Recover the amino acids of this structure.
C-alpha cells in the first residue's frame, strides 16, 4: 500500500474524504441471495411472461402501487426488495407513462442492493413501437444512475417466442446478488427450448471447463467460482506462473496445464489434454489477457502485436481447433464459449488503442460466432469488465485508481467474483437462450454507454 493510500484509508483520512464528498461506498449484496424485501411485479397491459417466470423461480410477489396523476401515491409500508416491470406489451409513447407511474413509488421504497428488472420485447413493429423499445433503454440506464445504496437496474429484451423456462436463469441472475456489479445493462434472451424448471446451486456438476489465465486475478476467481458450481476445471497459464497455477488447481481439485495460449499448437495441446484424460469439454473461458499501454503515437509494432495476439488472435485460433475436434477433446455440442472483453474496448480508452482493438474485437468475435454455432447449440457470449480490483489494476497510481473506482453508479471497484458470477450465468445450461451477448460488469461505468 502506498503512503498516500495509507493516509486515505486511515480513520482520519476517511473522515476528511467524507467531508469532501467521498463517502464510503455501499456494501453490495452478493452470491445466490434473493432480495430481502418483497418482490413487486407490475405486469403492464396484461403481459404474463414476467409473472410465469417468477412463479417458476418459486418467488412470491406483491402488486405494485401506482402513482396517481397528481403524483401522490400512498407509498409502500416497508422497504421492498425488487420491482419487476413486465413491459413486454408496451407499444406507444403514451404507454411509457405507466413506467413512471409504477417505478416512482417503487424506487422510493427500494432497499439497499435492491433490484429493478424491466422486461421488454426486442425492437419490432412500427416506428412508434421501435422508438418505445429504445425509450425503455433510456429509462433503465437513467434509473440505474439514480438508484442508491447498491441497488441496480437491468433491462432484458425477451424474444416473442422465449418461454419462462428460457428466461429463468437470466431473471434469477438479475434478481440475485450474483449480478451485484452489473448495473444499467441491457441484453437479450432468445427462445431456445431450454426446458428447465428451477435454478440449481451447482448447475455445472460433472462438466469440464477450461479457464485461461487462471493463476491469479479474475481468472483464479473464475476457476474457484466455477468449481464451486460443480465444474472440473482445466486451469491454464504461462509457465512462469506455474506455481500459482498449481496452487489454484489443487485448491479446487482441478488440473493445471502450463501453456502460452499464443503458441501455434495451443488449441491442439488443450484438446489432447482433454482427450487423453477421457473427458468431454463443455466450455472454455478465454480470460488470459495483457495490457501494453502507450498513446498511439508511442505504440510500436511489438506492443501492438503482443496485445492483439494474446487478447484476440489466440482465442480465435484455439476456438477453431476446439470446434473442429468434435468428440476428440474439442467442445461438445450444447457447450459454451466465453470471451472476456473490457469497457475500454467498448468505449475506447486513452493510451489503450491496442487493448481497445483487442477487446472490441472479442465483442465482435462472439457476436459473429454465435449465430454460426447455434445449430450445434453452442452459445458464445462475453463479459466486459469495468474497473475490477486485481493485481493488474493495483498497479495504477492510487489517486487515479480511486477516480476509476468511483466513476460508476455504485461508487466502487468490482471484485473478481463479480466477473466470475456473470460468466457462471452464461455457462449455466439453463442459459441456453443467451447467445451472442456482451454484458458489462462495470457498476455502470461512466466511461461509454
Ligand atoms: N482487472 C480489470 O479491471 C479488468 C478490466 C477489464 C478487463 N479485464 C480483463 O480480464 C482478464 C483478467 O484480468 P486480470 O485483471 O485478472 O489480469 P491479470 O494480469 O491479473 O491476470 C491475467 C492472467 O493471464 C495470464 N496470461 C497472460 N498472457 C498469457 C498467455 N499468453 N498465455 C496464458 N496465460 C497468459 C497471466 O499470466 C495472468 O495470470 C484480462 O483479459 C483483462 O484484460 C480486466
Amino acid at each position: 500500500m502506498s503512503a498516500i493510500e495509507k493516509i486515505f484509508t486511515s480513520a482520519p483520512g476517511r473522515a476528511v474524504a467524507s467531508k469532501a464528498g467521498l463517502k464510503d461506498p455501499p456494501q453490495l449484496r452478493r452470491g445466490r441471495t434473493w432480495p430481502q424485501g418483497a418482490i413487486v411485479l407490475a405486469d403492464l397491459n396484461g403481459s404474463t411472461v414476467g409473472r410465469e417466470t417468477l412463479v417458476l423461480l418459486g418467488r412470491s410477489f406483491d402488486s405494485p402501487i401506482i402513482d396517481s396523476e397528481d403524483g401522490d401515491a400512498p407509498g409502500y409500508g416497508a422497504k421492498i426488495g425488487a420491482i419487476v416491470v413486465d413491459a413486454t406489451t408496451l407499444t406507444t409513447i403514451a404507454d411509457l407513462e405507466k413506467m413512471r407511474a409504477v417505478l416512482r413509488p417503487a424506487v422510493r421504497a427500494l432497499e439497499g442492493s435492491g433490484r429493478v428488472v424491466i422486461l421488454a420485447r426486442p425492437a419490432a413493429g412500427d416506428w412508434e413501437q421501435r422508438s418505445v423499445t429504445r425509450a425503455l433503454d433510456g429509462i433503465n440506464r437513467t434509473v440505474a444512475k439514480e438508484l442508491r445504496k447498491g441497488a441496480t437496474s437491468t433491462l432484458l429484451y425477451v424474444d416473442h417466442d422465449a418461454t419462462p423456462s428460457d428466461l429463468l436463469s437470466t431473471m434469477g441472475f438479475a434478481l440475485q446478488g450474483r449480478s451485484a456489479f452489473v448495473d444499467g445493462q441491457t441484453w437479450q434472451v432468445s427462445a431456445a427450448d431450454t426446458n428447465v424448471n428451477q435454478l440449481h446451486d451447482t448447475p455445472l456438476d460433472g462438466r469440464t471447463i477450461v479457464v485461461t489465465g487462471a493463476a491469479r486475478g479474475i481468472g483464479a476467481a473464475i476457476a474457484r467460482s466455477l468449481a464451486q458450481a460443480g465444474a472440473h476445471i482445466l486451469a491454464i497459464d504461462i509457465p512462469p506462473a506455474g506455481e500459482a497455477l498449481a496452487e489454484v488447481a489443487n485448491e479446487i481439485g482441478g488440473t493445471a496445464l502450463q501453456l502460452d495460449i499464443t503458441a501455434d499448437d495451443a488449441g491442439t495441446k488443450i484438446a489432447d489434454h482433454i482427450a487423453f484424460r477421457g473427458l468431454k469439454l463443455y466450455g472454455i473461458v478465454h480470460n488470459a489477457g495483457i495490457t501494453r499501454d502507450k498513446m498511439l503515437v508511442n505504440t510500436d509494432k511489438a506492443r501492438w502485436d503482443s496485445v492483439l495476439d494474446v487478447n484476440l488472435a489466440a482465442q480465435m485460433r484455439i476456438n477453431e481447433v476446439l470446434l473442429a475436434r468434435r468428440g476428440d477433446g474439442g467442445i461438445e455440442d450444447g457447450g459454451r464459449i466465453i470471451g472476456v472483453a473490457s469497457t475500454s474496448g467498448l468505449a475506447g480508452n486513452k493510451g489503450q488503442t491496442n487493448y481497445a482493438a483487442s477487446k472490441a474485437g472479442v465483442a465482435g468475435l462472439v457476436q459473429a460466432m454465435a449465430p454460426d454455432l447455434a445449430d450445434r447449440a453452442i452459445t458464445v457470449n462475453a463479459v466486459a469488465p469495468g474497473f475490477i480490483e486485481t493485481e493488474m489494476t493495483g498497479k495504477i497510481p492510487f489517486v487515479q485508481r480511486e477516480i476509476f473506482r468511483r466513476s460508476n453508479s455504485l461508487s466502487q471497484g468490482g471484485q473478481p467474483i463479480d466477473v466470475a458470477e456473470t460468466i457462471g450465468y452464461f455457462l449455466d445450461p439453463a442459459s441456453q437462450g443467451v447467445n451472442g451477448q456482451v454484458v458489462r460488469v462495470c457498476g455502470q461505468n461512466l466511461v461509454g454507454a
